[in-house]
Amino acid sequence: MNARRRIGIDLGGTKIEAAAVSGEAGKIEIERRRRIPTEAEQGYAHILARTAGLIRQTAAEARIEPPFPVGVGMPGSVTHAGLVKNSNTVCLNGRPFRADLAGLLGQEVAFANDANCFALAEAILGAGRGRSLVFGVILGTGVGGGLVVDGRAREGLQSICGEWGHMVLRPDSDRACYCGRHGCVETYLAGPWVARHYQQLGGDACGLPEILARRAAGEERAVRCIDVWLEHYGRALANLINVLDPDAVVLGGGVSRADCLYDEGREQVARYVFTDVLETPILRHELGDSAGVLGAALLVE
Question: What H or E segment, with its residue span, contains residue 67?
Fold first, then answer.
């Protein structure tokens, strides 16, 4: 990567974030950063216009003259026909977002899944730096992932590389995923699903941090809930490591704050992985909420 100044965009369901960055791989400086609501309820054209406007505004404030490199990360991917698929901002699905944004800006735009952007940023600038094969895991309201090989995020033939959240962990499960299947990894590991399981065990409505606190206090149903969660985490991540054997796995997303993922969770991974001794580092992310925009900016060389 060269030292050209560039704009990175992290387009989410509730917010759009832009950053003007400069520097070379290993040393990136954020010069200007802005965040606005997505206002997804107002539809495709509105999101498109807000994204283009935010890019122009951020570039102007950072005094970056057009044309300038732009990278965009968002949930979902782009088909061979250039249409968005698998986005949880559903009004984008089936629409030529990348082409339309490029048309508004009058220049090309690089695009990648938001998990790929996270993985790329952590592999080059964060916890996975210096390693060749890095898998970035997103654990939050959903579950996703991204694969980086020798400093490049891999999309795959069908732009689904890294989508381990939709590996079917238990096909006979009654946990129906939004993708239409049952028993996906996401339905066992994502924060809302853990909270749902806790309620099924007789607990009240509360989030994962509270369930973890109750477990630490010895509450029986919280202990059971988290033990089941960690067991499925071990199975799911061991399957991934068996296939890729990465140099490191980096965890991100709100759920990744749970300390037990790095000790008890690791023990569960070691229990199921196809090797006598688990050597794979399972690391906390280092870049925080900057990973999305930094990874998007790193898409552009």
Answer: none
Paired strand residues for 284: 251
The amino acid at residue 136 is G
AA identity, residue 192 = P
pLDDT, residue 25, reads: 62
Rounded Cα gap, residues 149 and 162, in angstroms: 12
Could you give the percent of the chain with pLDDT greater than 70? 98
Q: Which residues contact 184 (CB under 8 A, 6 or more apart)?
A: 165, 166, 167, 168, 169, 175, 177
Specify the DSSP class assigned to residue 24: E
Cα separation, 24 vs 207, in Å, equals: 40
Per-residue model confidence (pLDDT) at position 76: 84
| Unique residue bearing structure tokens 């996975």 | 128
Read off the pTM.
0.90
pLDDT tens sequence across 4-31: 799 999 998 889 999 999 987 667 889 9
Sketch out the chain's domains with CATH numbers: 6-117+289-298 (3.30.420.40), 128-285 (3.30.420.40)
Distance from C-alpha of 134 to C-alpha of 125, rounded to nearest angstrom:
12
